[in-house]
């Protein structure tokens, strides 16, 4: 399938940014990119059987190489999809948030569900034995987070989106297959727009949408963190036990 991107000039307001968010998330679902079955055979001699995700010593491990990174991304997308599902279904969603905020948060909910379901379907079709190698549906606990609090929800959304961008950026160097790297690049661009939109909701008309706490002022690039730095953060919300022994 040939992907066609149409660019048009828009009014630089949050409403326009929201419209772009809506289009960018839906575009991902129609890229036609399907994961091809593979294993990280180059590493088989050094790390036998670790290229594929699966249960090892009674605990699910994400594996290594391309499949390890994609399963890692699937875990993070499960978290984000679950979070926004709870946000839009909270009892006071329609009263706590403004109309614009509801629109943005609802769009983000749809995006993350698309991302989660895309990874699940693609991995399910690519893994040699998905019945035992596909990461199970994870369970989550948000502790004392009040989903009826605008301040708490937006702060958590900001943390998750910033973490997601850093996660994809940090994992990019681990991906060997060009098509997979392209996929990760498309998704991280959407996640970065999510982060920008949430930051603009928290502090409108400011520079926070690309603040120096997430963008390196000397390089102009977003933060990049290895899985070993990201997973302990995600573990604050994920209650299902799994390991990532073969990811750096």
Model description:
- This protein has helices at 14-29, 65-88, 93-96, 99-126, 130-133, 150-171, 178-202, 227-234; strands spanning 54-56, 59-61, 242-243.
- The chain is mainly α and 248 residues long.
- Strands 1-2-3 form a three-stranded mixed beta sheet, with no helix packed on it.
- The chain starts with 13 loop residues before the first helix and ends in a 5-residue tail after the last strand.
- The model is unreliable at 1-14, 23-34 and 36-48 (pLDDT under 50).
Structural class: mainly alpha
User: Are there runs of 5+ residues with pLDDT below 50, and where?
Assistant: 1-14, 23-34, 36-48
Number of strands: 3
Order of helices and strands: HEEHHHHHHHE
End-to-end distance: 34 Å
* Biggest sheet: strand arrangement: 1-2-3
From the alpha carbons, calculate the radius of gyration and give it in angstroms.
18 Å
Strand content bin: under 5%
Any idea what the shape is? globular
Helix share bin: 40-55%
* Main sheet characteristics: 3 strands, mixed
Query: What is the residue-mean pLDDT, rounded to a whole number?
Result: 82
* SS summary, helix count: 8
